[in-house]
Amino acid sequence: MISEKLEKALNDQINAEIYSAYLYLSMSAFTERAALKGTANWLYVQSREEMAHAIHMYQYVLDRGANPSFADIHAPLALFKGVEDVFEKVLEHEQKVTAGLNSIATLAMQESDHACYQFIMWYVNEQVEEESNDGDILSKLKMIDGDKGLLLNLDSVLGTRIYVNPFPTDSKLNGTAPALG
Ligand code: FEO
Fold first, then answer.
1. Which of 93, 110, 126, 170 has a CA-to-CA distance to 43 between 20 and 30 Å?
2. Which atom of ligand 1 is nearest to the CA of 49?
């Protein structure tokens, strides 16, 4: 069992991960409509990763004998000033996600819940890479400074991103879960 406080914190985080998936899907639609299909691909892959995070956490809550709870998912932003604005918001959003994960890690530590601490530290470490990638793309966009040729080059690079299941041994995430009923 986990404490009620940790159960609530993890459920809030599941909601935040699903919101992330929803936000990146919205950003993917915006960039696809702006003819930046590579950028749209990158954001779509990110959206899928966020949903995988949510399901992974959901399973963890169940595995700890706790209750996943489902709250409203806020409508994501849908209008942006441009692709640089999109990635500024991606980075801002991920910094908030990092703060939430750090709070869970602190709580798990205070409660000496070593299993939960270890579970959540995977995400804390993952955020280092996420923020670094987002910051890198944002820096490049600032350098590009509206040059359409350079922007299309970056768009091609972002179009090469392929979804890789972050939890290949998790049956709920690799398509081998038994059917319900
Ligand atoms: Fe699942 Fe981008 O944090």
1. 170
2. 1
CA dist 68 and 181 (Å) reads 20
Contact criterion met (CB below 8 Å) for 42 and 159: yes
pTM: 0.94
Kindly report the protein residue whose alpha carbon is nearest to atom 1 of ligand 1: 50
Gap between the Cα atoms of 22 and 99, Å rounded? 19
Name which of 71, 65, 167 is nearest 113 in CA terms.
65
Element (H, E) at 122: helix 114-144
When pLDDT is averaged across residues 145-171 and rounded to a whole number, the result is: 94
Closest ligand 1 atom to residue 46 Cα is 2
